[in-house]
Sequence to fold (370 residues):
Amino acid sequence: MKLNKKWYHYGALASMGVLLLAAPAAAKVAGQCAICHTMHNSQDGAPMAFDAAGAAQTAPNDVLLLRGCVACHTGSNDGTNVIPYVSDTSAPTYGVDGTTGDTLAGGSFYWVASRTAGADGSLTDQTGHNVATDGMAPQDAVLLNMPPGALVGLTAQLRCAGANGCHGDSAETSDFAAISGTHHADDSTIDGSTTATSFRFLLGVIGLEDPDWEYQPTVTAHNQYKGVDRTTDTTDQTDTISSLCARCHNDFHNGAGEVGGTNPTTGAFASPWVRHPTDFDMANTGGTSEYRSYGGAGNPYVVSAPVASDDVSAVKNAITFTGDDAIVTCISCHRAHGSSYSDLLRWDYSAVSAGTGGSGACFECHTTKN
Fold:
């Protein structure tokens, strides 16, 4: 079932049995204010702030909210829910690549938050971003506050939003302040000018949002990510989805000599690669290259290995290798929140074996390697 863009039934945990009906106006929330907000954090002498398990917490939330980010976004996706659930109290159905079960585009924090083993047996710290918001996940035991590829570490553990987070205004230290007002704003136009009008509230990033957050996506129903056809390592166009990742993982995306090879005859941003390219258009390869077979016959868009485009005004059903529509991104391989596999990968990298006639995973782009 496809839902109108961000119409929220925004409210409490399912166990509390309350539901807030939404208004037919993009992300604007409508319904009883009391379902989300409390004026004084007190009712019959008891606090009115609750955690993800529904238990009362003494400390009030900012913005007079009853629940924080995690409490509102914990649950099981079924294709009809109008709150995107990015964590769960039991293991989400992931499947082989996260496109057939109940996992949304960004994946789930479940595996890293619950400290359960990933599908490939990886350490739990490797299966998701260790987000401190509402005490969801412990700090990464090895990396601490230094993201891989970072030039400078975070000042504190990663959060959902704000200065040490991904969503909202990075000038704010509080998750709540960073996204304040976004759930009441009209986001019918995604232009990156405000938090509310940015792709998934990622300030400055643009893209086309799938209305059910890629619940079991198809070639005609998926996010359309923004990318740029870069010509140098140092280019960092800040409205792309990969540039968002680069805010923490700098060296994996841009910087002199950080991604492209050093052979002067091949150009500044070309093979041989030092690291896997991002914001690179596969159309820059020769017409008979293996990359031109992305998706197979007819080059249909592959939801398990998504590519970005410069034009995000409409969903790409097929890749034409014209108009910058075959751009490799960080999330061509990874999920932003987490997956059941090591390194937040979309698939089990340890099971990818060249020359075996396999399909999917890396072979969606590296089509002659299987």
User: Anything to note?
Assistant: Residues 241-246 form the longest helix (6 residues). The CA atoms of residues 7 and 22 lie 6 Å apart. Residues 1-25 have pLDDT under 50 and may be disordered.
